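User: quick one, sequence for these tokens?
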């Protein structure tokens, strides 16, 4: 009999042990966001899948754009505001959005409603990805499966 995971209730999966990989002062801005890694649970290595709950007043991430990673989100419940370089767009349950790698169009999701919102996010795991955060003094590089964060002038975060 196999001990591999075949199926789960997504919201029953334990949350990530580290709620955010951002350095401070950005990490604390992610309070109210809970990610549950689904892809890792099944041993997926080519792409990641998370189910994410965003509490009222919270955000999915800092506004960012990936150099080599495509991203896709699908809203399962609640209402989120998609904030991109083009402005704000309301996303309701059943709606989805995609972000092409290298487009430079920074994005994030914000919950301005009074109820939790839940969405599924999918992203590839292309090595050597770099992320720009246009609203913050922050850059990120994917190195050896982890993220290294720097100031825009190249200095590291402590």
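Assistant:
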């Amino acid at each position: 009999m196999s001990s591999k995971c075949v199926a789960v209730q997504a919201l029953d999966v334990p949350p990530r042990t580290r709620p955010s990989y951002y350095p401070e002062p950005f990490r604390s801005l992610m309070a109210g966001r809970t990610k549950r890694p689904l892809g890792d649970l099944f041993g997926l290595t080519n792409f990641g899948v998370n189910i994410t709950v965003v509490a009222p007043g919270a955000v999915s991430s800092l506004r960012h754009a990936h150099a080599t990673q495509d991203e896709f989100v699908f809203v399962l419940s609640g209402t989120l505001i998609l904030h991109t370089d083009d402005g704000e767009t309301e996303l309701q349950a059943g709606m989805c959005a995609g972000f092409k790698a290298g487009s430079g169009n920074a994005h994030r999701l914000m919950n301005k409603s009074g109820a939790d919102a839940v969405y599924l996010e999918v992203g590839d795991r292309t090595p050597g990805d770099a992320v720009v955060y246009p609203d913050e003094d922050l850059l990120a590089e994917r190195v050896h499966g982890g993220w290294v964060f720097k100031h825009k002038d190249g200095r590291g975060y402590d």
